[in-house]
Amino acid sequence: MREQLLDATSILADAGVPPPDVDARLLAAHVLGMSPMAVTFAEVDETFAERFAGVVKRRAQREPLQHITGTAPFGPLDLAVGPGVFIPRPETEVLADWAVRTLAGTPAPTVVDMGTGSGALAIYVASHIPEARVYAVELSATAREYAARNAASHGVRITLVDASMTDPQLLRDLDGAVDLVVANPPYVPDTPDLEPEVYCDPPEAVFSGADGMDAIRGLVPVAQRLLRPGGWLGVEHDDVTSTSTCSVIEACGGFGPLTVLRDLAGRNRFVCASKL
Question: What are phi and psi of 251, to 5 degrees?
Fold first, then answer.
């Protein structure tokens, strides 16, 4: 097995896959149905080589690892993903953790996740705060199907809402009643120069105009309307648009001082604010 892992790592490295050794081990674990830590000393049958070569070839063609395995980890959750739904990224776990900590002590909070995709943020909150009422807003029918499947597999209840996060009429019945709004919206500036895997995500879940700010500009006033006084907004943004995101929230008005949170790499990635 060690030699097969080395061969796979070499193939993935030649294809520019980062990090090739990690992906080789994860692919082997997927084929074998075991923990990545157990792969090195695993006993394999005669079918393994062919199956392993097949998934390594797919990854070398820059198909996302998560599309091959069919899952993406998100904190303690294992979420089903595939073509047509945004793959949750590890950095968003910072926003999820902030949301749960912010809601500590709030009885039966009402939460809105704008652009839920696979349901990552909504399900994370619902799994940590079972009494929460969580509304998961998503325009894509495919993404809503994944979110519903993931909620069911984790035994939590969320309310899926077929709507755009920037719709001025979104959830009008909740005006002034929401305790927390979280959003991991599309925020990448339009560009052809990213890693190939990024373009395997639905473009409407990734890109948001020339400066990457279209969705954020649209969702902030909606969130301000939905929140109760003292309720919180947390927005993820591109690593170069923290100042722009702060400016949008400040221009909207009705929020207190802003807090900027950093992602796992130490980059400004989230802006949080409480409604006055």
Answer: -70, -30
Q: Band of the pLDDT at 40, cuts 50, 70, 90?
A: confident
pLDDT of residue 42: 86
Q: How many Å apart are CA 19 and CA 177, to the nearest integer?
A: 45
Q: Are residues 82 and 40 in the same domain?
A: no
Q: Which of 191, 268, 266, 203 is nearest to 237 (CA)?
A: 268
Domain shared by 230 and 103, yes or no: yes
For 16, the domain range is 2-61
Phi, psi of 119 (to 5 degrees): 95, 10
Tell me, yes or no, whether 169 lies in a domain: yes
pLDDT of 104 above 90: yes
Report the catalytic residues.
86, 184-185
- Report CA Rg, the chain: 20
**pLDDT at position 136 over 90:** yes
Cα 74 to Cα 9, 90, 91, 198, distances in angstroms: 25, 6, 9, 18
**What residues contact 170, with CB distance under 8 A and at least 6 apart?**
137, 161, 163, 164, 222, 226
Residue 266 — very low, low, confident or very high, per pLDDT cuts 50/70/90? very high
H or E stretch including 73? strand 71-74
Average confidence score pLDDT of the chain: 97
